[in-house]
């Protein structure tokens, strides 16, 4: 297209027109609104926050915005045990949650794919958690894991499995489990639905060929189904990685980072530092670490996605 | 013959395991949601009862309280619902218009740094809401957009544009160039060719993108909780917090609001669920 | 020794029965072609042999093992699919060696087998390519190579050539035949194309609506079709069929009171007054002076020609006989004007008579 445009400009009639009013390329006009809104709502605040992360800015004392303190905030973070603990915990949380989601999603998709009767209904139910607001999921599981009146404990006691009330959200380890459970409950469907779509898209012939070629069910899955599914898995991963931080909503509601900071993730720590302690500069510095983290995830899965695509001979985008 | 027999019995065992697994999955997915619905109809005494009451009593108290705006808490549900609806619908429509233009540009034109622009846009989407909320709060406070519908709409448009671009790009790419070329030869302008030929074909992709945009706006909490302050602009996810006091939570009332919150999303999604999956996979895989 | 035996094999989908009790014995080393129009059950039958479809009733054995419940992998077969079914994420080399790698053969073995198959099929230069970088014919050859590498008891081909263009199809047909001569395995081949069936098969199984219509060598089917379906399906152009009634003086009276003598083989099978169809191939309706005349019972006809289709060495003439259109072959063709009347010889001893009711051939 660019080539076409150049030809356009050199033709005499258009040059005349061009001197009267410079024509922007069409692609640019089409993308301009997107650029403007992104710049206004994301870029400018980010630039501002980048600047403020080099100041001791406190919401309560606006004048602090103009004091440059260099990288002091970052140094503070990097030497802060609490921050590193939250950072490490976030990585751990994401690793466990994403892997479980993938595993369960794959398992569910394979099972649903085998269903012949009522598959549509099951697929509809599968999408159910996708519609839940993360904060709602947080409340829902806060309720269910409530040690006094929650469904989890009531059921355990009624079934006679445990007499004592399990302190789901009070004990550090159990709280982490509960949060991961909620996160996995919410996000597994994205994987299941996309992988299921992938299963539908697999041509039948290679699967049958593999069967005839002597593959067991496992070998067929390992050598044929899985490679076909990889692009779908990475799309799910990419979509998820765009949104990893929504776990913040869940954690904020369920435990608020407690008990005693045992479920503190980088996002809850940041929001407390910013809003409760009003130390914006410091919080923004943390924010930048969290942004880099999200971007790292996204870029990683995007790369994987395009690699998987070209492996199967799909498009060559990116 | 013996081998034939073992294969038959193994198949039977696998089938039973399959059914059991499916049942468990469906139970885990459905029970939490049903629990919420069930409790929205139970009196508070019963919810709080120890030992638990397993045979539920039916009451509409929570809904009455919620819509009456009176009683415990007195949550202005109607306003929250209205705010949510205005913000979500407006931001969805704008995001789709802007995003579709962008998607079309990426699908149909070639220009320098195209992939760079694309990845850049996606990375903006990856910025965590919490991290963005801090500086955005300050900037919005400066320009007076805090606690307004417009402020929130702008934010959600920015959140949804990148993903919309991604999805629609994939869809427009599926449409052969010949479509609009034929339309232009038949006498359409480029603009007409787009609306009359390419847009209808890419409709399911646009529908999917719209649903995602709507759900994102409808359900967003991290930004809304900071950028809204009063009844005039608070959305429902933020409104849920109204049911929590220092040490107690009005579970019944919250469940009722939760049901109200899920219903529109549920209906909308089921209406277009076919497009949803098609949209997601087309946009991504064959992109 | 690999015989494949089908014993009253039935396939049901719910209440609908797609294959009705097929009995078939395929000999060791035989090239058997299942042919028929789409939906006749030929592919279903093949897929039941492969183990890709459950067998609703009856028994299939390969060698002397009953394989009804065995999964495909335990049947030691290879299959070439219509859409090639190459694994897109593997190179040609990996595709070819896949089945051996699954069977955990030593790497050296695999390499040897792959080399050999690649040599047979002329794939040597393509081993590092991915399927998406191959042409249709090359993909087809890789699919065949993958089948060879396994060294199966039986090869199954499911319409392997139908996605290729006409020229390539002819080429690949020859390659498949050569392949059979070289490896000598039992081959079961499904196609809807009667030319493929005629050129490839040792024996043809003609199917329709889930039943076997006729089994025999290509020439048997061509020369002695058991019914009108077989007569029109096998051979190109299809056999000419003219409605008629048997008279009591040893002739068949066609629609416009034209009569032809009853061919000798059918004479004892017909009764006077019977409604029949009189059939003959285009090759046996010969324009006088433009055919290889053989000794035989001939009838003279003069027919108006409405249309010609020149094919080079011969021209297909569309003529009118007893109110119906018939086709004739003109060798050493000369230009023919539409509407021109031409004198023909009809070779009576190569004509067929079919019952008009059930279509069965009337023959001693």
What is the compact description of this entry?
Chain B has 287 residues and is an all-alpha fold.
Helix content of chain A: over 70%
Largest sheet entry of chain C: 6 strands, mixed
The major pleated sheet of chain A works out as: none
**Assigned CATH class of chain A:** Mainly Alpha
Shape of chain C: elongated
Keyphrases for this structure?
heterotrimer; A: mainly alpha; MetI-like fold; 14 helices; C: 364 residues; alpha+beta; Rossmann fold; OB fold (Dihydrolipoamide Acetyltransferase, E2P); 5-stranded antiparallel sheet; 24% helix
Description of the structure:
The complex is a heterotrimer of chains A (318), B (287) and C (364). Chain A has 318 residues and is mostly helical. Chain A has one domain: MetI-like fold (Orthogonal Bundle), CATH 1.10.3720. Chain A is built from 14 helices and no strands. The two termini of chain A are 18 Å apart. The N terminus of chain A is likely disordered. Chain B folds into two domains: 67 residues, no CATH class; 209 residues, Orthogonal Bundle (MetI-like fold), CATH 1.10.3720. Chain B is built from 14 helices and no strands. In chain B, helix 3 crosses helix 13 and helix 7 packs across helix 14. Chain B starts with a helix and ends with a helix. Chain C is an alpha+beta fold and 364 residues long. Chain C folds into two domains: 225 residues, Rossmann fold; 116 residues, Nucleic acid-binding proteins (OB fold (Dihydrolipoamide Acetyltransferase, E2P), Beta Barrel), CATH 2.40.50.140. Helices cover 24% and strands 34% of the residues of chain C. Chain C is built from eight helices and 20 strands. In chain C, strands 6-7-8-3-9-10 form a six-stranded mixed sheet, with helices on both faces. A five-stranded antiparallel sheet of chain C has the order 13-12-11-14-20. The radius of gyration of chain C is 24 Å and the shape is elongated. The two termini of chain C are 36 Å apart. The chains are: A mainly alpha (318), B mainly alpha (287), C alpha+beta (364). Chains in contact: A-B, A-C, B-C. Chains B and C meet through helix 1 of B and loops of C.
């Amino acid at each position: 297209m660019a080539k076409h445009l150049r030809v356009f400009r050199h033709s005499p009639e258009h040059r005349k027109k061009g001197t009267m009013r410079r024509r922007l390329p069409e692609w640019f006009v089409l993308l301009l609104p997107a650029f403007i809104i992104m710049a206004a709502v994301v870029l400018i605040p980010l630039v501002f926050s980048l600047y403020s992360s080099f100041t001791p800015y406190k919401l309560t004392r606006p004048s602090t915005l103009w004091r440059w303190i260099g990288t002091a905030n970052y140094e503070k973070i990097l030497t802060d045990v609490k921050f590193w603990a939250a950072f490490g915990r976030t990585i751990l949380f994401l690793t466990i949650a994403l892997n479980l989601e993938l595993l369960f999603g794959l398992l569910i998709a394979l099972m649903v794919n085998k269903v012949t009767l009522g598959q549509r209904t099951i697929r509809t139910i599968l999408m159910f958690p996708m519609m839940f607001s993360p904060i709602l999921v947080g409340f829902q599981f806060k309720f269910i894991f409530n040690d006094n009146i929650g469904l989890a404990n009531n059921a355990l006691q009624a079934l006679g499995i445990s007499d004592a009330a399990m302190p789901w959200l009070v004990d550090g380890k159990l709280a982490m489990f509960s949060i991961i459970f909620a996160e996995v409950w919410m996000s597994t469907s994205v994987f299941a639905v996309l992988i299921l779509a992938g299963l539908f898209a697999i041509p039948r012939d290679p699967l049958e060929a593999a069967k005839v070629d002597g593959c067991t069910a496992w070998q067929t899955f390992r050598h044929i189904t899985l490679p076909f599914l990889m692009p779908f898995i990475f799309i799910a991963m990419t979509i998820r990685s765009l949104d990893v931080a929504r776990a913040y909503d869940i954690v904020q509601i369920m435990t608020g980072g407690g008990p005693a900071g045992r479920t503190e993730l980088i996002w809850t720590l940041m929001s407390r530092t910013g809003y409760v302690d009003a130390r914006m500069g410091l919080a923004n510095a943390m924010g930048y670490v969290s942004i880099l983290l999200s971007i790292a995830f996204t870029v990683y899965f995007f790369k994987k996605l395009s690699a998987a695509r070209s492996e199967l001979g799909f498009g060559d985008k990116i | 013959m013996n081998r034939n027999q073992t294969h038959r019995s193994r198949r039977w065992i696998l089938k039973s395991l399959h059914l059991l697994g499916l049942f468990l999955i469906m139970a885990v997915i459905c029970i939490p949601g049903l629990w919420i619905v069930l409790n929205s109809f139970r009196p508070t005494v019963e919810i709080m009862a120890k030992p638990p009451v397993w045979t539920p009593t039916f009451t509409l108290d929570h809904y009455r309280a919620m819509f009456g705006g009176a009683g415990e808490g007195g949550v202005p549900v109607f306003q929250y619902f209205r705010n949510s609806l205005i913000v979500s619908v407006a931001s969805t429509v704008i995001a789709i218009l802007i995003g579709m233009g962008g998607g079309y540009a990426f699908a149909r034109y070639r220009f320098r740094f195209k992939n760079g622009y694309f990845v850049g846009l996606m990375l903006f989407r990856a910025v965590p809401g919490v991290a963005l909320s801090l500086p955005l709060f300050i900037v919005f406070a400066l320009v007076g957009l805090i606690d307004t519908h417009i402020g929130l709409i702008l934010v959600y448009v920015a959140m949804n544009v990148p993903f919309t671009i991604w999805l629609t790009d994939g869809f427009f790419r599926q449409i052969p160039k010949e479509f609009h070329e034929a339309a232009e030869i038949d006498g359409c302008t480029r603009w007409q060719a787009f609306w009359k030929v390419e847009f209808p074909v890419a409709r399911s992709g646009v529908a999917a993108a719209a649903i995602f945009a709507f759900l994102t706006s409808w359900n967003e909490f991290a930004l809304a909780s900071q950028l809204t302050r009063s009844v005039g602009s608070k959305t429902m996810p933020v409104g849920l917090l109204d049911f929590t006091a220092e040490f107690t939570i009005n579970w019944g009332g919250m469940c009722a609001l939760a049901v109200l919150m899920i219903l529109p999303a549920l209906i909308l999604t089921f209406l277009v669920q076919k497009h949803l999956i098609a949209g997601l996979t087309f946009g991504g895989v064959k992109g | 020794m690999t015989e494949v035996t089908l014993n009253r094999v039935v396939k049901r989908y719910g209440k609908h029965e797609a294959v009705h009790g097929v009995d078939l014995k395929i000999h060791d080393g035989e090239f058997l072609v299942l042919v028929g129009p789409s939906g006749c059950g030929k592919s279903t039958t093949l897929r039941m042999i492969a183990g890709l479809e459950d067998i609703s009733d009856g028994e299939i054995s390969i060698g002397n093992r009953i394989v009804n419940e065995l999964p495909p992998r335990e049947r030691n077969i290879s299959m070439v699919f219509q859409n090639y079914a190459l694994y897109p994420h593997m190179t040609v080399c990996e595709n070819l060696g896949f089945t051996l790698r699954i069977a955990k053969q030593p790497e050296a073995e695999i390499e040897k087998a792959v080399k050999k198959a690649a040599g047979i099929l002329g794939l040597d230069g393509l081993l590092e390519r991915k399927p998406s970088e191959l042409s249709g014919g090359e993909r087809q050859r890789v699919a065949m190579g993958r089948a060879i590498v396994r060294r199966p008891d039986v090869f199954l081909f499911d319409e392997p050539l139908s996605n290729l263009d006409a020229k390539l199809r002819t080429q690949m047909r020859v390659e498949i035949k050569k392949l059979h001569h070289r490896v000598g395995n039992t081959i079961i081949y499904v196609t809807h194309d009667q030319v493929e069936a005629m050129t490839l098969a040792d024996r043809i199984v003609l199917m329709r609506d889930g039943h076997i219509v006729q089994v025999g060598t290509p020439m048997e089917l061509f020369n002695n079709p058991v019914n009108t379906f077989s007569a029109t399906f096998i051979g190109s152009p299809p056999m000419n069929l003219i409605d008629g009634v048997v008279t009591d003086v040893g002739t068949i009276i066609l629609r416009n009171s034209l009569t032809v003598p009853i061919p000798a083989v059918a004479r004892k099978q017909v009764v006077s007054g019977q409604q029949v169809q009189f059939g003959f191939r285009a090759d046996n309706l010969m324009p006088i002076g433009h055919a290889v005349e053989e000794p035989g019972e001939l009838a003279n006809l003069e027919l108006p020609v409405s249309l010609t289709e020149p094919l080079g060495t011969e021209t297909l003439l569309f003529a009118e006989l007893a109110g119906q259109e018939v086709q004739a072959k003109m060798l050493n063709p000369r230009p023919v004007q539409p509407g021109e009347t031409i004198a023909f010889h009809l070779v009576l001893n190569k004509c067929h008579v079919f019952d008009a009711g059930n279509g069965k051939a009337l023959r001693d």
